[in-house]
Amino acid sequence: MRYDNDAKQLKYEVLHKVAEHSFAGTLEENINQIPYDLIPGPQPKFRCCIYREREIIRERVSAARGLSMPGQPENAIIGVLPAACEGCPISRFTVTSNCQHCLAKKCQAACPFGAISITGRGAYIDPNKCKECGRCAAACPYNAISDTLRPCLRSCPVDAITMDENRRAAIQYENCISCGTCANSCPFGALTDRSYMTKVIDLIRDENTEVYAIFAPAIEGHFGMATVGSLKAALVALGFTGAYEVSLGADATAAHEAEELAEAIEEGRKMTTSCCPAFVEMIEKHFPKLTGLISHTGSPMVLTARYLHQEHPGAKVVFIGPCMAKKLEIQKVQETADLVLTFEELAAMFDAREIDPAKKAEQEQDGSLAGKNFATSGGVTASVQQVFKERGIELKASCLQCNGARECKKALTLLNLGRLPEDFLEGMACEGGCIAGPGGVESPVRVKKNRAKLLAQADSRGVVENIQQIHDYSDVNMDAR
Which residues in 370-386 are b (16+ Cβ under 10 Å) and which e? Predict the structure, then answer.
């Protein structure tokens, strides 16, 4: 695997090394050697010196083993690698060479903190006095003051990122929704997710334990032109007992959520989706008055895991997707997947075992086309509408699809104020849907191109027929919690 993003590439190389040693049963005795294998020296590859680079590798190895990062609570998913968080500018606002030494001095007049002085070279901002209010930048007629807000701070949709006393990134976990946007946006790879990969490998190496993989509908397109069937075969070759599409659970979610929405409309209530854990976390942490409007239907991951636990009592279930927040969901929801992997971690595991999923045999799909499209923004709403169509139900319900966490926040703000006109709110924290999740391996553009070809091969099974006849969900608990 080769990424065009060096920060992502470094993360992959660590995951790959850890996976290799985990499969071989040699991880413990090689933990201290991994930094030297990846950074042999004597010249640094990407930082000031090999010593810092090796420390970053050590921190990444800890995250790959599922250990807590400094300042990270035991149950938190996203954390900061201190050694890596050193490259961002200390001062947010800086005067550039565009400064024209003007007589008006509007920047100085606009600053309420006395942070701006005028020198022979132009305006100067004292970082010790600056409170980063941005009034100087807004006042400058030449746009001579640049705003270099840290990417992690800029990207966080819920303002959960701050800076500690050493000016390094810090996460306010009481606000964090584990969406992974910060990890995806940091150009130094200083924010990352805690991995369950070594625990998964230990499980599948245990010959006395049945372990089933369930993979998100977003997987199609992330591993080139690998089909669902070839991915299933590759996962079995990796050591899993069997593998299933979570689009099967998406069909069950759509069918039950359609019933729930019909009841809500009849009673004059509004309703939101429940399948995106970061969206649910946003409601629970930032709009607690709206928690009663969240759908009571379990997410596709939850319902697929419950189906498998029912079919194979005593077996372990591992969810695989592009979503970091799913690692939080399994902590909060009962009767769900036992562990979670991202596509990044799966790619490292495939490469560690020299498995090319595109070269494996074909097998039959599990979910409908509507279920597969849960992976894209608007897909949940479309699936619920498909259920109404298949059941011959005409329901007048207005729906709003929120594409990304910022759109979710705006819609929830309106809903919280009682000003949202729509009846049904679909929320997805990632722009474009799950296919653009932070734990993916391909760019959204390439994934869409690959998916268009792969989904064209899917059969036309219906949502309702699929869960009633092909896969019996009649005894599965559908509740979200």
Answer: bbbbbbbbbbbbbbbbb
Do the Cβ atoms of 190 and 155 come closer than 8 Å? Answer: no
What is the pTM for the complete model shown?
0.93
CA distance 295 to 253: 10
| Confidence tier at 71 by pLDDT (50, 70, 90) | confident
299-348: pLDDT as tens digits? 999 999 999 999 999 999 999 999 999 999 999 999 999 999 999 999 99
Phi, psi of 401 (to 5 degrees): -100, 120
- Name beta bridge partners: 213: 243, 318
Burial of 300 (0-12, 13-18, 19+ CB in 10 A): buried
Q: Do you know the residue count of the chain?
A: 481
Q: Which residues pair with 79 in a beta bridge?
A: 192
- Residue 167: the pLDDT is 80
Please state whether the peptide bond connecting residue 42 to the residue before it is cis, i.e. omega within 30 degrees of 0: yes
Mean pLDDT over 74-88 rounds to 89
> pLDDT band at 87, cuts 50/70/90?
low
Q: Report the pLDDT value the prediction gives residue 91, as an integer from 0 to 100.
A: 79
Sequence-separated (6 or more) residues with CB below 8 Å from residue 427: 272, 273, 276, 279, 282, 402, 408, 411, 412
Q: Could you tell me if 383 and 254 are in contact, meaning their C-beta atoms sit under 8 angstroms apart?
A: yes
CA torsion angle for 424, 428, 434, 435 (degrees, to 10)? Answer: 90
* CA distance readout (Å), 130 to 96, 124, 148: 16, 11, 14
Displacement of CA 165 from its chain's centroid (Å)? 28
